[in-house]
Amino acid sequence: MRKIRNIFIGFLVAFSTSAFAEEAGSFKQTIANFSQSVDGFFNDYTGWFVSLIFKSVPIGEVGFPIIVGWLLLAAFIFTLYFGFVQFRRAGMAIDIVKGKYTDPNSKEEGEVSHFQALTTALSGTVGLGNIAGVGVALAIGGPGATFWMILCGLLGMASKFCECTLGVKYRTILPSGAVSGGPMYYLSQGLKEKGLGGLGKVLAVGFAVTCILAALGAGNMFQANQAHAMLSYAFDVPSEYGLITGIVLAALVFSVIVGGMPSIASVTEKIVPWMAALYIGMALIVIVGNIGQVGAAFGAIFAGAFTGAGVAGGFIGALIQGLKRATFSNEAGVGSAAIAHSAVKTKEPITEGLVSLLEPFVDTVVICTMTALVITIAGLNVGPYDGSGLTGVTLTAASFTETAGIFKYLLAIAVVMFAFSTMISWSYYGLKSWTYLFGEGKTPEMVFKALFCVFVIVGATIQFGAVIDFSDAALFAMSIFNIIGLYFLMPVVKKELASFIARVKSGEIKTYEK
C-alpha cells in the first residue's frame, strides 16, 4: 500500500513540476512577445520622430546631432549674457540653500523650501543618467567623452539659472495653495507680455506634450528597465521577472506621488542625500584605492577628448557622446527642473534661479566625473578595457566590481534608489504638463498618476530598443520649445538679477544667520 502511495505521490510531483515548467516557459514566451510588440510599435510609429529630433550634419566620419549643438549654443550664450553667473554667484547660491536669505517669520507662497526644491530637482537629474548614461558615453566615445560632459555641465548651469528663475516668476498659485509652474506657464504668459501670445501658446503646448512623453519614457520606463537590469546583474533575478519588479516599483511610486509635491519633496529631501552619499562613497573608495592611476586616468580623459584614437569617430565621437549624455543627465535647457523649482516658498524668483544652477555642478561635474574615473581606472587595470561588450549600467557595475565584488550589490541598491527618486520627480513634471493641457482637478491628476504607474510596469517588463531611442528624443524635443522662449525672456531674468543684487548690496534684502 505504501509503495502504491509513493508511486502516486511521485506521479503528482512529476506532473506538477512538468506543469510548472510548462507554465514558466509559457510565461517567458508571453513576456518576450509583449516586449517585441512594444518595441515594434515604437519602431514603426515613432521612428520618424527620433530621426527628426536627432537629425545630424556630417562632421568628419560621424554625424553631429543638431539638437546637441542647439543645447550647447544656448548654454554658451546664457553664460556670456549673464556674465558667468554660475561662477560669480555660486557662493550666494549656497547661502540661499542654507537659508541665509530666508526670513524665518515670513509666510511666503509656495509648497517647499529651497533645499526641498533643489533635492526634488536633483532626484530627477541625479540618477541613471549618471550611472547608465556615462557607461554608454564611455563605451562609445571613450574616456574623452568625460571632458565634454564636464564642459557641458559647467555651461549648462547658466541655462538652468535662466529657466528656473522664469519658472518662479510666472508660476500660478492655485486656491488650494498648490503651485503650477514651469515652461508651460512662462512660455505662454511671458511671451504674451511681449505681444507674442500666439507663439507662446504654441510653444507651451508643444513643451507640455513632449514633457508628458519624456516623463513616461526617459523619466519612467527607462528608469524601471535599468533598475531591473541591475537587479538581474547583481542578484541573478531572471529577466522575465521584470513584471514583479515593475509592480513593486509602481506601488512604491504611487504611494508617494498620490500626496502631491509636498509628499514628493518630503521623500526626496531624505533619499537624495543618502543615495548620493552611498554612490559617491563607493566611487571615492575606488579612486583612493587606485590613487596611483588617477593621473593616468585624467591623462586618458584629456587625450581622448581631442584625439580619441581608437574610439568611434575619434574627437567628434567623444564630443557628441559627452554632450549628449551630459544633457540627458543634467537636463539643463530642457526645462524640466523649472517645474519642480516653481513650487518653492519665495517671493524672489532670482533666488531659486541661483539655487538651481548648483544642479548641473553636482550632477555632471561631480557625480558623472566620478563615474567616468571609475570606468577609466578599471580600463587601465584590465588594459585595454572595453567592458567585454558591456554598456550602460552593466559597464559601470563591472567597473566598480573590479575593485571589490561587494560593490555589485551596493550599486544595485543605489541604482534602485536613483530610479525610484527619478520616477517620483518626473511624475510631477508629467503631471503638471498634463494638468496644463487638460485642466486642474482631482480626476485629471488621478488619471495621469494611474497611467504613470502602468508605464512603470511596462518599462520593467520590456527589453529596450526603439523605446529608449524614443525616450531620448522626447527629452531632447522639450528643449526646442523651451530654449526658443528663453531667448525671448532672458532680458527679464537679467533685470531680476540686477534688481536682487542691488537690493542685497543696499541692505534692503537682509540676511539671517542660521
Summarize the helix and strand pattern as letters.
HHEEHHHHHHEEHHHHHHHHHHHHH
Span from first to last CA? 83 Å
- Total helical elements: 21
Query: Overall mean pLDDT score?
Result: 79
Number of strands: 4
Q: How many domain regions?
A: 1
| Range of strand content | under 5%
Q: Structural class of the secondary structure composition?
A: mainly alpha
CATH architectural group: Up-down Bundle
Poorly predicted tracts of residues? 7-21, 309-313
Helix content: over 70%
Strand order of the largest sheet: 1-2
GO molecular function, one term: amino acid:sodium symporter activity
Protein name: Sodium:alanine symporter
Membrane topology: Multi-pass membrane protein
Family: Belongs to the alanine or glycine:cation symporter (AGCS) (TC 2.A.25) family.
Brief account:
The chain has about 525 residues and is mainly α. It is built from 21 helices and four strands. Strand 1 (about 55-60) and strand 2 (about 60-65) form a beta hairpin.
3D architecture notes:
Belongs to the alanine or glycine:cation symporter (AGCS) (TC 2.A.25) family. This protein is globular. The protein is mainly alpha-helical and 514 residues long. A hairpin with a 5-residue loop joins strand 3 (172-173) and strand 4 (179-180). A two-stranded antiparallel ribbon has the order 1-2. The relative contact order is 0.20. Mean pLDDT is 79; it is low at 7-21 and 309-313. The protein has one domain (53-506): Amino acid/polyamine transporter I, CATH 1.20.1740.10. The protein is 77% helix and 2% strand.
